[in-house]
């Protein structure tokens, strides 16, 4: 897994954007991580993963959302 960035969501959670290979597929993964009771950051169920080849379409959609 290649961690790209971490973006704070709140005092106990953060978004992590990573790029990784899963069963031969190049994926972009955006996942919510949370602080466990022992202070460790763990992945939660919330998130999305998509093929890296679709990244330009996601960037375009997010750019449109920013303008809207």
Tell me briefly what this model is.
By secondary structure, the chain is of the alpha+beta class.
Q: List low-confidence stretches.
A: none
Strand order of the largest sheet: 1-2-3-4
> Would you identify the CATH architecture?
Roll
Q: Rough shape?
A: flat
Largest sheet: 4 strands, antiparallel
- End-to-end Cα distance, whole Å, is 33 Å
User: What percent of residues are in strands?
Assistant: over 45%
CATH superfamily: Transcriptional Coactivator Pc4, Chain A
- The count of domains is 1
CATH topology (level 3) name: Transcriptional Co-activator pc4, Chain A
**What is the helix/strand order?**
EEEEH
Structural class by SSE content: alpha+beta
Explained architecture:
This protein has 68 residues and is an alpha+beta fold. The protein has a single domain, classed as Transcriptional Coactivator Pc4, Chain A (Transcriptional Co-activator pc4, Chain A, Roll), CATH 2.30.31. 19% of the residues lie in helices and 57% in strands. Strands 1-2-3-4 form a four-stranded antiparallel β-sheet, with no helix packed on it. It is flat, with a radius of gyration of 14 Å. The mean pLDDT is 96.
Which short descriptors sum up this protein?
68 residues; alpha+beta; Transcriptional Co-activator pc4, Chain A; 4 strands; 19% helix; Transcriptional coactivator p15 (PC4) C-terminal domain-containing protein; ssDNA-bd_transcriptional_reg; PC4_C
């Amino acid at each position: 897994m290649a961690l790209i960035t971490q973006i704070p969501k709140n005092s106990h959670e953060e978004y992590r954007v990573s790029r990784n290979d899963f069963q031969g597929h190049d994926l972009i993964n955006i996942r919510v991580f949370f602080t466990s009771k022992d202070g460790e950051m763990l992945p939660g169920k919330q998130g999305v993963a998509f093929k890296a080849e679709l990244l330009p379409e996601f960037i375009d959609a997010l750019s449109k959302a920013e303008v809207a």
